[in-house]
Specification:
63% of the residues lie in helices and 0% in strands. The protein is mainly α and 110 residues long.
Length: 110
């Protein structure tokens, strides 16, 4: 009796590419929305009742967000560079910092 050997087939590696265009657009929109929310909260009458420490913390996060957003724009407008990993890294951080700034204000206002 002869045994036939089956060739072991290696599964083909599936390469999934990360779509920076989609994610950069997503973080761009989230940053814009969170910035609008921050401006609304910061200029509201309730913000005037918050202590200086809380306002400084919120502004600190907002300033960091603006710095990262500026870094994302270093190579030109964001919409021209949506496929860039540099834009992705900085835009993502910018969104997270402005989100934190909004969180500080919302948590303090109750």
């Amino acid at each position: 009796m002869e045994y036939s050997k089956k060739k072991e087939e290696k599964p083909e590696a599936v390469q999934k590419s990360f779509n920076y265009v989609i994610w950069n657009f997503f973080y761009y929109r989230q940053y814009q929305k969170a910035t609008e929310r921050f401006n609304l909260l910061y200029s509201s009458p309730e913000a005037g009742e918050l202590d200086n420490e809380t306002l400084e913390l919120a502004l600190f996060h907002k300033t960091l967000a603006e710095q990262y957003y500026a870094k994302a724009e270093e190579n030109g407008p964001i919409f021209r560079n949506l496929n860039s990993i540099k834009v992705f890294i900085n835009l993502r951080k910018a969104y997270f910092y402005v989100r934190d700034a909004v969180g500080v204000l919302e948590e303090s206002m109750g």
